[in-house]
Design goal:
It is a single chain. The chain has 167 residues and is of the alpha/beta class. The chain has one domain: Metallo-dependent phosphatases (Purple Acid Phosphatase, chain A, domain 2, 4-Layer Sandwich). It contains four helices and ten strands, in the order βαβαβαββαβββββ. The strands form two sheets. The chain has a five-stranded mixed sheet with strand order 3-2-1-9-10. The radius of gyration is 15 Å and the shape is globular.
Length: 167
């Protein structure tokens, strides 16, 4: 099972549209995760129309239209692995402990907000993944997103993809 992870797309505030490379992947993967800060409903509608399955939440920059259509936390079970998606997890310091306590029954937590790619274990089971932002690198060297594969009930081949600088 192939997964695509993204967050903090901020369309049209930070970019006019999602990068073509990312859009091309959407219909080819089994599940798309979006960890919030969409900014516009058109991007949500676009991903819902193209994705086989979308697991998504709203973020702090998302207004009432998006909040009415998306949860603050979303859950999915895929091949026996329990996923949760949330936008914000608080400061980096202590994140692993906080998330392990807040999500004791989750195997993988996808989050956003910071625009900083993150991949770390938390506790004895939880894995934290932040794909960064495909449209707004902020203080990061690259715009990013992640892909992953599920195999035999395990998260495998988690990969951070760097996008070229916007023109």
């Amino acid at each position: 099972m192939e997964l695509l992870l993204m967050s903090d797309t901020h369309v049209p505030a930070r970019a006019k549209a999602l990068p073509g490379e990312l859009l091309d992947l959407v219909p080819r993967v089994d599940v798309v995760f979006h960890a919030g800060d969409w900014v516009d409903t058109a991007t949500l509608d676009l991903l819902r129309a193209r994705a086989r399955r979308l697991v998504a939440v709203y973020g702090n920059n998302d207004g009432p239209d998006l909040r009415a259509r998306l949860p603050e936390v979303a859950y999915a079970e895929l091949e026996g692995l329990r996923f949760a998606v949330v936008h914000e997890t608080g400061p980096a310091r202590g994140r692993e402990r906080r998330c392990a306590e807040r999500f004791p029954d989750v195997d993988v937590l996808v989050f956003g907000h910071s625009h900083i790619p993150w991949d770390s274990p938390a506790g004895d089971r939880l894995r934290l993944l932040n794909p960064g932002s495909p449209t707004d690198r902020r203080r990061q060297p690259h715009r990013t997103y992640m892909t992953a594969r599920l195999s035999a009930g395990r998260l495998a081949e988690v990969r951070l993809h760097r996008l070229p600088h916007a023109v």
